[in-house]
Amino acid sequence: MSQNLRSAILLALATTCVTPASGSVACKKGLAPAEDFACNANITFAICKLKAQIAELSGSYDEVSKCIAQWKKDIKPVYEAAKKKTATNPDASKALKDLYAYWLASMDALIPSPGETKGHYEAKLQERDQGIADRATKLTTEAE
Predict the structure, then answer these.
(1) Phi and psi torsions of 7, nearest 5°
(2) How far is residue 129's CA from residue 12's CA, in Å, rounded to a whole number?
(3) Can you tell me the distance from the alpha carbon of 105 to that of 109, in angstroms, rounded to the nearest whole number?
(4) 42 and 96 Cβ atoms separated by less than 8 Å
(5) Nearest to residue 55, comparing CAs of 66, 69, 42, 44?
(6) What pLDDT, on a 0 to 100 scale, did the predictor assign at position 21?
(7) Most CB within 10 Å of its CB: which of 15, 37, 75, 115?
(8) How many Å separate Cα 104 from the centre of its chain?
(9) Which string of DSSP letters, residue by residue, matches 29-54?
(10) Whole-angstrom Cα distance, residue 97 to residue 109?
(11) pLDDT of residue 108
(12) CATH topology of domain 3-142
């Protein structure tokens, strides 16, 4: 299977299987607010990253920009709910703020910098993906 076809299939699955749930933009119902935010941070970055990989082929990042803007807007209530629940736990609150700030910067990093090489761009996205996962794990651990 070609990489283009694989990316298109993954994107189709990601965007059709991810439907907003009560209190969440991408994750299943019933998660604790901090866990829900951590899940959403991982999934929303992955969705926009798939769109960025497809955009790499066409050179047009318009859909990626729309994806980033939409998730930044839609994740805000999930973040606020987690912020409210972690307010009495300083370690969890700090981990939440760290994940949110890193996630915001990571979403912006999905648009390549002018002159950025493909290798550097892919390494940057891999680093961002791992950074979100690490921070999400820290948040869920601190919030327990």
Answers:
(1) -60, -40
(2) 20
(3) 6
(4) no
(5) 66
(6) 44
(7) 37
(8) 8
(9) TT--HHHHHHHHHHHHHHHHHHHHHH
(10) 18
(11) 97
(12) A middle domain of Talin 1 (1.20.1420)
**Residues 118-129: b if buried by 16+ CB within 10 A, e if exposed:** eeebeebbeebe
**Which 3 state secondary structure label does DSSP give 24?**
strand
Those residues with Cβ within 8 angstroms of residue 89's Cβ, 6 or more apart along the chain or in another chain: 142, 143
Please state the domain extents for the chain: 3-142
The token duo for 41 is 């941070």
In this predicted structure, what is the pLDDT of residue 55? 87
- pLDDT of amino acid 16: 43
Q: How high is the pLDDT of residue 144? A: 87
Per-10-residue mean pLDDT of the chain, 144 residues long, equals 53 47 62 92 92 85 91 93 96 98 97 92 95 96 92
